[in-house]
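[recover] target loaded
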C-alpha cells in the first residue's frame, strides 16, 4: 500500500477491500448472531387449551380476568418498552359496560400489538395480529390464539423458567 500523494484523498476501507479481491474470489459474508439489546423477565408458558377452555370453565370465568391481567403484566416485565396496561386492561373488562363494550374491545385489539412487539423483541418474525385476535375473540377463540402467539416467545428461550432474566434482541 502506498501513501496518498498530495491532492488525493485516502481510499475508503471498502474500496481497499474491493481492490484486494479484484482478481480472485471474495470471501463469503459471515452471518452475525443477533446482538442483545436489553434484558427482561421471561414469561410463563401456559397450556393454550387450559387458558382458553379449562380454567375459565372451572372458575366460572374468573380465570379469564386473571389471564388478561397477568398477560399484560408479564408483557411489561418482559420488555419495559411495552407499556404496563395490566390494571387498565382489567378495569376495562370489569367496567366495560360504561362504554357499551367498546373499551374492552380496544384493549383486546391492543393486546395483539403488544404480543407482536414482544415477538420482535425476542428476535422472531411478528405473527400476532390484533385484527385476527378480534375476529377470533368474537368467535370465542381469542384467548387460544393469543396464548399460542405468546408461547412462541417463551419457546424461543427454551427451558428458561418464568421470571428468569432473558436477553432481548430487538
Amino acid at each position: 500500500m502506498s501513501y496518498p500523494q498530495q491532492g488525493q484523498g485516502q481510499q475508503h476501507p471498502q474500496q481497499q477491500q474491493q481492490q484486494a479481491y479484484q482478481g480472485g474470489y471474495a470471501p463469503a459474508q459471515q452471518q452475525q448472531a443477533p446482538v442483545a439489546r436489553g434484558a427482561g423477565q421471561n414469561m410463563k408458558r401456559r397450556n393454550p387449551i387450559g387458558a382458553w377452555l379449562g380454567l375459565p370453565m372451572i372458575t366460572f370465568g374468573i380465570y379469564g380476568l386473571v389471564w388478561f391481567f397477568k398477560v399484560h403484566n408479564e408483557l411489561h416485565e418482559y420488555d419495559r418498552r411495552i407499556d404496563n396496561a395490566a390494571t387498565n386492561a382489567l378495569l376495562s373488562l370489569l367496567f366495560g359496560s360504561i362504554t357499551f363494550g367498546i373499551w374492552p374491545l380496544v384493549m383486546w385489539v391492543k393486546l395483539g400489538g403488544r404480543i407482536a412487539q414482544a415477538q420482535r423483541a425476542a428476535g422472531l418474525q411478528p405473527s400476532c395480529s390484533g385484527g385476527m385476535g378480534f375476529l377470533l375473540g368474537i368467535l370465542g377463540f381469542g384467548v387460544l390464539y393469543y396464548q399460542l402467539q405468546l408461547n412462541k416467545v417463551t419457546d424461543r428461550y427454551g427451558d428458561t423458567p418464568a421470571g428468569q432474566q432473558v436477553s432481548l434482541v430487538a
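[recover] notes: The chain has seven helices and two strands.
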